[in-house]
Write a structure and sequence with these properties.
The structure is a homodimer. With about 375 residues, chain A is α+β, with helices and mostly antiparallel strands. Helix content of chain A is about 30%, strand content about 20%.
Chain lengths: ~375, ~375
């Protein structure tokens, strides 16, 4: 007997080339009894929503505004981009202001046990200073953290926006990524969306976020290096190759449009995760022209509706991976976005090993998503 | 002005030597408004709990049973270890049974486009077979998946067990890890605990799990290699060094006992995560003698009570990392356990970058945990 995808007696591992990690595909795990009933979060609105039209003064001033002249002419904006009031990163100016003093403190720590260092919130390095500083490295994080407010009305999911506004959202992603990566010359930038408490959202009103940093996260660098390695070995881009294989095999495709493909990756670590990318090689999301961004916005809009029909009111995330500065225009790096519903919980095994157990086969997920009537 | 830990205008990154990842420590993020109110899960008990005394027939037969003669003499067991009814891995026997046919199918796929391959659930490799097979690698996962049932009574958290039972739990971890890693000679084994729905538990009754596999997860291998690298560079074990530094600095210690130390790691990616490990070098958890396991059980019991006093009824996980087969008895590998409450949500940014934003400084977490009156 050959192992089939749904054979309950054997577990299958699949290798993800990009991360060089194995994933456990274990549909039999879905049959186990569950005593917990997940309760959707309650939503409180003590104050009016700061993202709604009429409350623009409650956010920092917009750095960009987009109006859809064609569709809803009465509105002063359809997409507003504002600095995050509670940023995870510091502005380059703030870092510059403290940098010289910080350097002085670093010197102190490296030179001696100095109580001023401890009082400043830094540890005393009582043993070998060099060793200690290597185990306890700290640095500032310079960059930007922006919120893309999607529509003047209080809607929660991108799927509720009209297509005109959704297109503007994707154009704002392009513009802001280009601003941080090209104009500000930062090393890394990512756009992501959290919808619902289970996806890490803190506010309801439909929005995305952009974080740009002067440091490329380790896992992003590793993924870029894996794409380089594939290109060196095969003379072809990993995702160009994957897209071609996926289309030929047809088992995991959710939808194809003239310029894009949406598919459930072969070694997906999360159930019902969908990757969307360009069919033709393209390193940078920011390089996509207007008409492609409109097509992409429609495809993402539809894919979210597919997910929401299968898993009603589901919390979800998506992440837009574009080339970091080191890989802009690279023949090996291919931009993509990953879209995933939050229908599983990262438990002890996954936290410990980073080896994920996926209870849905990507083939079954793709089939379900394809068959949704829109 | 030097950057202080709670300076709201600048973000600090900290480097985790073990994983070679940077973490963003951003206490200012805790101040942002939240519109979602998390609802604790409802608990249903349609059927009687299969882990309670009197329902032993509802689980597979026990592979190990522990009785605490001293404390509660009326019970037939205090800890029962049973095979998981819904295993994430296949037993070595199951894999053996399908292996020969699977190999035949693999051969087919490598040789030609063959419809039998597709019908069996495997993809047709229509392009270069070698390339295709590299992008679409699958394998069986052979090993064991066990449940450690902690106490005959229907309690939910390890902190509710009496200390005699808690000690037996830790002794069962040792015995089962030794069984899979030494007797069964598997490559990797991990013990973990999920308490509460938010931590990925499916059943309420206090239990842990053990997964043993014939493959070492990529991230575990990388961590072991980082420990090797530290040892090669410094002539000392990374965790021996860290424990010494932590005790000297005193800023992140939660508690010390004669043989163990509990501390909040400097570059913790999760808020209030506590690492517990041996003060003296020890590669293998399974090598701990009885009296140390009793001491450790008490320390973990207390540490969970600390967490539960600060975050009431909190869901939590812990993971016991012992040396994989390749590093048993290694001078570089040091066993540890990581214990963490589930008080934050992995959002789009973290899923995309694996760069975590920790809203609690480890220094503040340790101070809070230390000051709990037990």
């Amino acid at each position: 007997m050959a192992p089939s995808r749904d054979d309950p007696t054997t577990s299958e591992m699949r290798h993800d080339w990009l991360t060089d990690r194995w994933v456990i595909v274990a549909p039999q795990r879905a049959a186990r009894p569950v005593e917990f009933v997940h309760q959707p979060p309650r939503i409180i609105s003590k104050h009016a929503c700061p993202f709604c039209q009429g409350h623009e003064h409650e956010t920092p001033a917009a750095v960009a505004c987009y109006v859809d002249q064609g569709h809803a002419p009465g509105k002063s904006w359809h997409v507003r981009v504002v600095p995050n009031k509670f940023p995870a990163v510091s502005s380059p100016e703030a870092v510059l202001a403290v940098d010289s003093n910080a350097l002085a403190f670093k010197q102190l720590a490296l030179n001696s046990e100095n109580s001023a260092w401890k009082e400043s919130g830094y540890e005393v390095c009582s043993a070998s200073a060099a060793m200690c500083s290597e185990l306890y490295q700290r640095r500032f994080l310079s960059g930007g953290h922006e919120v893309i407010i999607e529509g003047p009305e209080h809607l929660q999911s991108l799927s509720q926006l009209d297509l005109g506004t959704a297109s503007l959202v994707f154009k704002s992603y392009r513009d802001r990524l280009a601003y941080w990566l090209t104009e500000q010359a930062l090393a890394y930038a990512v756009v992501f969306k959290n919808v619902g408490e289970e996806a890490g959202a803190s506010l309801v009103h439909s929005h995305s976020q952009l974080i740009a940093t002067d440091l490329v996260p380790t896992d992003i660098l590793r993924a870029a290096q894996r794409m380089d390695q594939f290109f060196e070995q095969k003379g072809e881009c990993l995702f160009c190759r994957t897209v071609r294989e996926e289309i030929e095999q047809g088992l995991r495709i959710v939808e194809q449009t003239p310029d894009f493909v949406a598919y459930c990756p072969f070694a997906s670590r999360l159930p019902a995760l969908v990757t969307i990318t360009s069919g033709q090689h393209c390193a940078r999301f920011e390089a996509l022209p207007d008409r492609q961004l409109e097509q992409l916005a429609e495809l993402v809009h539809r894919t979210i509706r597919r997910l929401e029909q299968i898993f009603s009111d589901v919390a979800y995330n998506y992440v837009v991976h574009t080339a970091p500065a080191s890989h802009q225009g690279s023949a090996a790096f291919h931009w993509r976005m990953d879209l995933f519903p939050r229908i599983s919980t990262k438990a002890g095994f996954e936290w410990g090993s980073e080896c994920f157990i996926n209870p849905l086969t990507p083939e079954n997920s793709a089939e379900q998503l394809r068959s949704v009537r829109l």
